[in-house]
Amino acid sequence: MALQSRQRTPNPHLGAYYGIVASAFVSLAILLAMAEQLGWGGGSIARLMILMPMVLYMAIAVAARTLNIEDFFTSGRRVPQIYNGFLMAAITVGGTGFFAYTGALFFVGFDGLAIGVGWVCGLLLAAVLFVPYLRRVGTYTLPAYFGLRFRSPLTRMVASALQIAPIFLLLAAEAKIAAMVVALFLPAAYWVAVLIVIVFIAATGILGGMRALTWSGSAQFITGGLGLAIPLTVIAVVLTNLPAPQFTYGGLLGSLANAEAAAGVGAAGPDPVAGFPGHEPVAAVAPFLQAFSTISEAGFFALFVCFALGTAALPSLLARSGVTASVADQRRSAAWALLLVALFAMTAPALVVFAKVLMFADIVLIPTQGLPAWFNDLSALQLLRATDLNGDGSISFSDLLVARDGVALALPTLAALPYILTALMATAGLAIALAASGSHLFTLGASLSDDLYRSIDPQPIVLPRLLLAWTAIAGTALIMTIYLFIADVDALSYVVTAFALAGATFFPALFLSTWWQRYTVWGALASMATGFGVMLLCLVAGSLVGIADTAAGTAAASLVSALLALVGGIGASLYGPAAKAADTALFEAMRRPDGETLYDQAEAQASAAQNKTE
């Protein structure tokens, strides 16, 4: 068959190309470090460190432009496993993980680990339960999978509509983080930074779709990893004499506990309506090592399961299930993503411990006239502020208000390291945020165009199909720009809500459709509608009493919604019409890993039937 003869061999020179990207990034950092020692100002260094990699990303996107349908939506199904793993990890963590999650750990300590462990467990669930079967089916989007699984355009349209809310929230959070970095380090007005970020990710998606996002996103992940690893390794050497922060920060925990005790940070019990810190500067008053100081054991478990289910069923993550050359490669790419996210989950606590140790070493009832040098630098970036609340002429740690999303950016300054390392950290977070936000934007645009349009016109010609995708991406980008101008976006809160919605809406339907042959189209509709509807009702009702505004409250609502969705899907399938023979046959075909994807087979059969009628 013609489809089976398609070239699926990746470019053998990719390793060399991305080696050049990594070398160029490190060389730029070294040159700017030398320039800083020669007297260059921090503003020039920051602008070059931010803009030069962005120019490189856009050049890669331009080189990867395409008008081919398969390249646009699946990158030609020939992405090597490691590069797909890069993007899956970036989508999971994103810039919100880089800045907002590490900041949350700074304030709540142990309790924040529920998010990181949830990401890791969610990727494990996706790799085992869903990813191989979605690769076998081979649809471009998650709603298209439901449409093909049940031969139901209605199911496809409903899934496409329901995924808008969680993906829109994630896109808003990632774009806000990216715009924050651009505004701080160019510097530029916030609205200008928003325009730069949105135009950048929209242009990348329009130029080459999934293909451009894959290759530019791989470069972004590499620069993001290097930009995080270099400053953190330097600080680990300064504080522990060893370049392995993940394994050496434990030796500082005793010093941190003593410093917290000296500053008057005492143990506290969980508050049932307390949440993670917002994006406004607040004081860190919870001991890092005390478990369940801000949320209860039940809240911790709910948050962990919420992120696990949300990650496993995240539409923009699962959209990458069809881009590798085989089912085996897709399994391995999920394993790479799991490894990379686990490495980040191990690294984030080290970053936070280093920041708290350095800050506590200087802030223990110091006089207001003798503030440390880093205080003015971080205050200028609006990453912290301090007020002598009790008027005793000194500042304690409770008087120091720290911006949650700026903890990672503050670390090199706290360690009195050259400014280039701060710029490196900013570039790293920006790169990951751009990779994640571009993927979320493309997922929305592709679904709005392909899922909705294909439900109306099953056999469109090529050009209108791409034009509709470009229009959907551009329109979504315009709406997001306006939204960011008028909305006060709290990145971490948006991410918690988005993962809660994704888990409640799609995990039960995905699980049952993949693992239960009796599951029917009415069961799928019942699962998705119940999960989304109950979750939305919980958010609206909970916000009236202040519970759903907390991470634990939102997570608990997600678990209740997912459970009801599971029951609803099973009940509708058992008491409704039995599964059709075609649905049963596709269910069995999903379990055969060899051969062309089921979606491509269906496309070829439809095309052949159309040609015969003509």
Provide a descriptive summary of the structure in words.
By secondary structure, the chain is an all-alpha fold. The protein has a single domain (17-609), classed as Sodium/glucose cotransporter (Up-down Bundle). 73% of the residues lie in helices and 2% in strands. The two termini are 21 Å apart.
What are the salient characteristics of this protein?
single chain; 614 residues; mainly alpha; Sodium/glucose cotransporter; two-stranded antiparallel ribbon; two-stranded antiparallel sheet; 2% strand; globular; disordered N terminus
Layout of helices and strands, plus pairs?
Blueprint (H helix, E strand, L loop, with lengths): L13 H24 L4 H22 L5 H6 L6 H28 L4 H25 L4 H9 L2 H10 L1 H22 L4 H51 L4 H4 L4 H10 L34 H16 L2 H4 L8 H36 L3 E2 L5 H8 L3 E3 L7 E2 L4 E3 L4 H8 L4 H38 L5 H25 L4 H25 L5 H25 L5 H25 L5 H9 L8 H16 L1
Antiparallel strand pairs: 1-3, 2-4
Helix pairs in contact: 1-2, 1-9, 1-17, 2-9, 2-17, 4-5, 4-8, 4-9, 4-14, 4-17, 5-12, 5-14, 6-7, 7-17, 7-20, 8-9, 8-17, 8-19, 9-17, 9-18, 11-14, 12-19, 12-21, 14-16, 16-17, 17-18, 19-20, 19-21, 20-21
Give a brief outline of the structure.
With 614 residues, the chain is mostly helical. The protein contains 23 helices and 4 strands. It has a single domain (17-609), classed as Up-down Bundle (Sodium/glucose cotransporter).
Largest sheet: 2 strands, antiparallel
- Spans of at least 5 consecutive residues with low confidence: 1-6
Q: State the CATH superfamily name.
A: Sodium/glucose cotransporter
Helical content class: over 70%
How would you write the strand order of the largest sheet?
1-3
C-alpha geometry = globular
Q: Average pLDDT, to the nearest integer?
A: 89
> Distance N terminus to C terminus?
21 Å
* H/E series: HHHHHHHHHHHHHHEHEEEHHHHHHHH
Number of DSSP-assigned strands: 4
Count of alpha/pi helices: 23
Structural class, judged by helices and strands?
A: mainly alpha
Number of domains: 1
Question: What oligomeric state best describes the polypeptide chains here?
Answer: single chain
Membrane topology: Multi-pass membrane protein
InterPro entries: EF_Hand_1_Ca_BS, Na/Glc_symporter_sf, Na/solute_symporter, Sodium:Solute_Symporter
Pfam families: SSF
Organism: Methyloceanibacter caenitepidi
